[in-house]
């Protein structure tokens, strides 16, 4: 993966939460932590890639696990299955694969 503005320890926390909740989905990082303009407490934007919307319980579990983690910043989860083409195009302009689909 190309440079992403998080520490190895923070990356491990994020990976653990993603593997627990969405192991079968690709997850892409986008936004400030990808484009090099992040500040210390900029959030991490993650898009969970899929053709169908995530079940509400899975989305809630992700939000809960991230909010209870030791990460010093917020993680915003975007569900690829529900966003429109304009937002998809914004993400497609600059993203990094954070997790491959299995």
Automatic annotation (TrEMBL):
GO terms for molecular function: nucleotidyltransferase activity. Residues 16-95 form the Polymerase beta nucleotidyltransferase domain. The keyword Transferase applies. Keywords: Nucleotidyltransferase, Transferase. It holds the Pfam family Polbeta. InterPro entries: NT_sf (IPR043519), Polbeta (IPR041633). It comes from the Bacteria. Its EC number is 2.7.7.-. The keyword Protein biosynthesis does not apply. This is Nucleotidyltransferase domain-containing protein. It comes from Neisseria leonii.
């Amino acid at each position: 993966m190309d440079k992403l503005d998080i520490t190895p320890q923070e990356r491990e926390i994020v990976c653990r939460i993603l593997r627990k909740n969405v192991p079968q989905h690709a997850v892409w990082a986008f936004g400030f932590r990808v484009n090099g303009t992040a500040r210390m407490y900029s959030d991490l934007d993650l898009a969970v890639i899929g053709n169908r919307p995530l079940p509400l319980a899975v989305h809630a579990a992700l939000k809960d696990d991230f909010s209870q983690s030791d990460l010093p910043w917020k993680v915003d989860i975007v569900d690829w299955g529900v966003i429109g083409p304009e937002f998809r195009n914004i993400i497609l302009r600059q993203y990094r694969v954070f997790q491959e689909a299995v």
